[in-house]
Amino acid sequence: MDDAAMKQLIATLTGIAQGSAQRRFDVRDVKDLVVQFDPDIPTTPTAEQWVDSIVKAAALYQGNDEWKLQCGILNLNGAAKLWFTGVAVNTWDEFKTALIRDFPTSVDAVGIHQAMINRKKLPHESLETYFYSHVALGRKGKLADEAIIKYIVLGLEGRFGTITQVSTLPELLKQLKWLAEVRDLKPTEGHVRPSILKSAKSSGALSANIKCYRCNGEEDFVKIVFRISSEFSQEFL
């Protein structure tokens, strides 16, 4: 390849790289990064907080004001969506100004504290949903993380056993997930590694009592595996 051809190839590759760097993500591709703004839902952030979340998403995905406006419109819901049908806005600045004006921040601190006190984990609710609904309420009320942590633990009503003291929300979620896994363990074949069960079945261990090397007692194989696993888990709680 001669010098002219090499220079042309380099110029072409450079142009492709620059085009990729300047690519702006379609707002529909990242729509779900911003929570919907629905004033009727208690966990919905304030108008100011919601607008700020769009600005942050735009900075991350190279979105201009038109991108922000589209993202905002797509994430309106409930009363806010009805509001948009009757408001005259054509730019991002007009949109955010009108939204903050028509949905003024009115945080009922007492109401938020009461809501968090009453918020209990539902039987079939995922741990993450329960956790982040508390976080959303706390953020809306501008509560300190320490207060949010106390409300989250209070709403569990001791169902996850003893929770050690933590200082951050991520630490709490990590500990709760670990406790949930330990709590859900049961002395059944379904919770023993398949390779262990296969070996045990082929040797007849499951049908007979075997001696535990830790206590010299005779127990069912699966019970021994479960008991040792539980003891091991407790050492790290």
Automatic annotation (TrEMBL):
This chain belongs to the protein called AAEL008200-PA
| Species name | Aedes aegypti
